[in-house]
From TrEMBL:
SMART domains: Pro_CA (SM00947). One of its GO terms (molecular function) is zinc ion binding. This is Carbonic anhydrase. PROSITE patterns: PROK_CO2_ANHYDRASE_1 (PS00704), PROK_CO2_ANHYDRASE_2 (PS00705). Keywords: Lyase, Metal-binding, Zinc. The keyword Cell cycle does not apply. InterPro entries: Carbonic_anhydrase, Carbonic_anhydrase_CS, Carbonic_anhydrase_sf. GO terms for biological process: carbon utilization. Binds 1 zinc ion per subunit.
Amino acid sequence: MSRPGSIGGQSGPEREFLTADVPGAPERALAELIAGNRRFVTDALWHPNQNASHRSAVATEQHPFAVIVGCSDSRLAAEIIFDRGLGDLFVVRTAGHTVGPEVLGSVEYAVTVLRTPLVVVLGHDSCGAVQAARASVATGTPPSGHLRAVVDAVVPSLRRAREAGVAELDGIVDIHIAQTVEAMLKSSETLAAEVAAGGCAVVGMSYRLAAGEVRAVTARPVELAGALVPTA
């Protein structure tokens, strides 16, 4: 793993960047995230890439090694829970990590223009968006305003959970994370092609609000699942 600074422990203009063109980049990017989360959980933080010199270094260009498509929940700040800094993560957040054209366009920009080798769908336990969708379906009362778009995006995951006999909230959250991964790959030919070419991977993770840990939900390609934190 890298030390405080850039990937590989390098700093300055010769530092290494993990891009889709580097062999094994998706696996290495995932390992960086897992190591950073472990530091966060154990309170052994490095706070890498957060000083003035690095701020200046990334002012004219960026080379994020992972895209985080996460829930907007205020307790799910990616740079904090993965112990990373400026320029490391390309973060897109919506309530319930719901995915629309703008989100897909942002992801496609990262994986094709910035050559980011890893996309993570990051959900969490006790997700309010999932709870709101479940309450809406149970009462037959859709929410008002644009909140309805969030609920409507979660409803397919509720149907899938019902078909699988899953009723517990955090089990539904896991299904929703997996559903988001599949929906992104199905909706974005660009992302699917990058994954098929081997330069990019998409993984689903769930974050525990109290413990601070991320755990495995799904991965594409499936072989990458072995590198994920075991489910508990």
